[in-house]
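Try this one yourself first.
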């Protein structure tokens, strides 16, 4: 029995699955009905095979309108990002890639160089959202893809910020966004605050699905929420806003997942 459990656990960590969600929102402009987003979260510089071809193939198969990269794309302990940058270039050939930072980027960039890292991602074709947004137009309608930088960056550079709630609100309001918005954030556990921003859909990661998932109960532990986290994976609705939390692809500091296969997340927004 123990042998079988061990084999199954190892097998789960060697591959990934495609997790699909449909979010209904009548506020979505008609021209964007069935707007499809592939979300890649918490990659942590992970490669499942040579050049991550299996990941690229899975993303390409979904035919996404955009790709959302929601932080911890690089792991804080990564020494060489050349392979990650090559993967990034191939990813942008599938669809426009919108990127926000996670807490691991903050720690990685403290030694590698923040501006250098972002410049290399931009050169690879990524659209960097640093408390900013981009407008997408289609059929006379438009939506916004917005992104909030991880609080760890601001807590390091701006000592006045120690409360992520206040930080999110201030940085979002500074954008002066008008219209339907898809918001990318790394950490989901401030959903109570984020849902009051009146955006359409929020995409988040960070929690790794609770790392260890217990049937019926769900995730066991997640950073920021502790044991039995509330927002570790799935779709959550509050104040008319839907938040999709991806359990992500990589592992970070925890070496393995249990009953929690790494995932590429696909979100289709429909009216």
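Now uncover the answer:
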């Amino acid at each position: 029995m123990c042998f079988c459990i061990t084999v199954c656990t190892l097998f789960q960590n060697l591959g990934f699955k495609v997790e699909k969600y449909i979010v209904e929102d009548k506020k979505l402009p008609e021209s964007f009905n069935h707007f499809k987003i592939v979300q890649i979260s918490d990659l942590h510089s992970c490669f499942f095979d040579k050049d991550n071809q299996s990941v690229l193939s899975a993303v390409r198969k979904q035919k996404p309108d955009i790709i959302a990269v929601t932080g911890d794309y690089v792991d804080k302990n990564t020494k060489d990002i050349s392979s990650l940058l090559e993967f990034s270039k191939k990813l942008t050939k599938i669809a426009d890639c919108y990127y926000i930072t996670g807490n691991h980027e903050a720690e990685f960039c403290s030694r590698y160089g923040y501006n250098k890292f972002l410049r290399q991602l931009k050169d690879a074709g990524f659209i960097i959202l640093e408390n900013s947004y981009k407008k997408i137009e289609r059929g006379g309608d438009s939506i916004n893809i917005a992104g909030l930088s991880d609080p760890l960056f601001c807590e390091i550079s701006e000592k006045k910020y120690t409360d992520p709630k206040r930080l999110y609100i201030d940085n979002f309001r500074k954008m002066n966004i008008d219209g339907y918005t898809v918001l990318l954030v790394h950490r989901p556990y401030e959903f109570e605050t984020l849902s009051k921003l009146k955006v359409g859909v929020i995409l988040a990661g960070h929690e790794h699905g609770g790392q260890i998932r217990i049937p019926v109960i769900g995730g066991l532990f997640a950073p920021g929420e502790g044991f039995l986290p509330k927002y570790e994976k799935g779709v959550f609705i509050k104040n008319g806003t839907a938040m999709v939390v991806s359990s992500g692809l990589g592992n970070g500091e925890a070496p393995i997942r249990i009953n929690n296969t790494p995932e590429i997340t696909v979100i289709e927004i429909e009216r």
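Discussion: Residues 99 and 211 are 23 Å apart (CA to CA). The longest strand covers residues 17-24.
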